[in-house]
Amino acid sequence: MWGHVRRSTIRGALRLGIVTTAVVTALAAGLGTLLIFRSVAIHQTETFLGHEATVASAIATRAGRFFFGPHGAHTFGPRRLVALTPTGGLAGDVPQALSHLTLSLRALTPGHISYIVRGDDVWALDPVLLSNHDAVGTYAVLVHRSLPSALDPALYVVAFTLLAALVAVLVADAYTRRVAASVERFASLAKRVSEGELTVTVPERPLPHAELDDLRRALSEMVASLRDARERQRSFLFAISHDLRTPLTSIRGFAEAIEDGAVDDPRRAGAVIQREAQRIERLLADLMDLSRLEADGFDVHLGAVALAPLLEHLAETVRIRGRARGLTCTVRVGEDASEVVGDPQRLAQALLNLVDNAIKFARHRVELDAHRADGVVVLEVRDDGPGVAPELLEDLGRRQVTPRPGLDEAIGSGLGLLIVSRLIESMGGRLRVRSPIGTGGGTAVVLELTASARRLASRPGSTLPTST
Question: Could you list the pLDDT tens digit for every one of the 468 residues in the chain?
């Protein structure tokens, strides 16, 4: 699907961006150079013409009659001395560009130099008083100079800017080629992973750029996580198929024996079939619960849950179900741990699952204990059974484990602690398992729950009465 649509690339976008920036920069630099050069040229020209006009005015003032003689025009120039009209206009042989010029009254004052810029031409005009045949008139010394061309410097600046931009484009292109190659390599690996190929090898060598190295590490962690998930899925399916096959084999064997008339005690065979059917039913129920939990299909309504009555009810369940084996159950609830934040039904479901496990493996007693520690309520379900093998502790609550028959010969699905862990996490808590807890073994399943803001005020360490 990726190869059918032509899309812009990072490398192409960077190229376009750099070239566009270079062209705009070159044009802006050229225009700026043109304006600056013209401004400087006008200033320098005005300074030069002002000096020339001052000198010419001084000469004209001292030798005014000379300029009206036959040699004046040749010596001073035909357009260097013009008459000023009372209204501020210019009379006589006036340049075409200044024919419609009108000076202000201030500009008619001798010694006040006016500058006129028309395109690339600059004039300086300095009024003087001259007498001609005993008549005094106001004239103006007019000097002119053309501005030098500002185009050449601007073109040089544009050319050098574009050359520098070309070098920048080549350097950036080489750099982006390396970056794009890394991104394309990771994209190819991600595409193969999305197609189910989890045997891909992500480079382990760190990359020099932090962003690309973060991408490499994220891809590596994703592949490792998917591999682990696939392995857990395979193990889970294998375990489920084994757990289903065992009771089905037993049911099928007794059913065939009954059909062949080879069963001496039909009541016993029926009891075995019923027990194995219940085992399958429990397994399917656990699978449904786990499926809903994994799909966030459980509704959790958080509120304050009182622990004392809940634990007393569970303790009574232990005593009734464990009466034949002589099991006892004790309950301890600290007054500062009397209420937790949770869903009453889900918390009861999780604790009942833990109590079921404790009943299966306990030799003599089950203990339910709730107390405050490190700002949370710690709820422990302990039994004095054989304990859990060290190599299984890490998997408890994280994945399905191979079910073991309890002391009451009951066999679960191996999903109980996984379901409890998901339920507790949905209520903002955490589950962990300790084993052994004594010299003879024993297991403690520890739940860390958020204390309710409505908990009873009490002295630290005080407890409710112990029941047995």
Answer: 444 455 667 777 777 887 888 788 888 888 888 888 888 888 888 888 888 888 777 777 776 555 554 444 434 443 467 778 878 888 777 788 888 888 887 777 788 888 888 888 888 888 887 766 555 677 788 888 888 877 777 788 888 888 887 887 788 778 778 877 888 888 888 888 888 877 888 888 887 778 878 888 888 888 888 887 777 677 666 656 756 676 787 788 878 888 777 777 778 778 778 877 876 776 677 667 666 666 555 667 888 888 888 898 888 888 888 888 888 898 998 888 888 888 888 888 888 888 888 888 888 888 999 998 888 899 999 888 888 777 776 766 565 555 555 555 555 555 667 778 888 888 888 888 888 877 778 888 889 888 876 543 433 433 333 333
Element (H, E) at 341: strand 339-342
* Structural tokens at position 21: 């920036």
Q: Does one domain contain both 284 and 346?
A: no
Q: Examine residue 462 and state whether it is found in any structural domain, yes or no.
A: no
Burial class (CB in 10 A: 0-12, 13-18, 19+), 370: buried
- Single out the residue of 137, 141, 115 nearest to residue 127, CA to CA: 141
Whether the pTM exceeds 0.85: the reply is no
**Total domain count for the chain?**
3
Q: In this structure, are residues 376 and 451 in contact, taking their beta carbons and an 8 Å threshold?
A: yes
Alpha-carbon distance of 345 to 301, in angstroms, equals 9
What is the domain-level CATH number for residue 232? Answer: 1.10.287.130
Both 288 and 308 in one domain: the answer is no
**Shared-domain flag, residues 442 and 397:** yes
What is the rounded distance in angstroms from the CA atom of residue 164 to the CA atom of residue 224?
A: 46
Task: State yes or no: cis peptide before 127, omega within 30 of 0.
Answer: no
CA angle 87, 93, 96 (to 5 degrees): 85
Residue numbers of the domain that contains 246: 198-297
Report strand pairing: 328-333 vs 135-146.
Answer: unpaired
Residue 167 inside a domain? The answer is: no
Tokens standing for 187?
């994209």
Bridge partners, residue 131, by sequence? 136
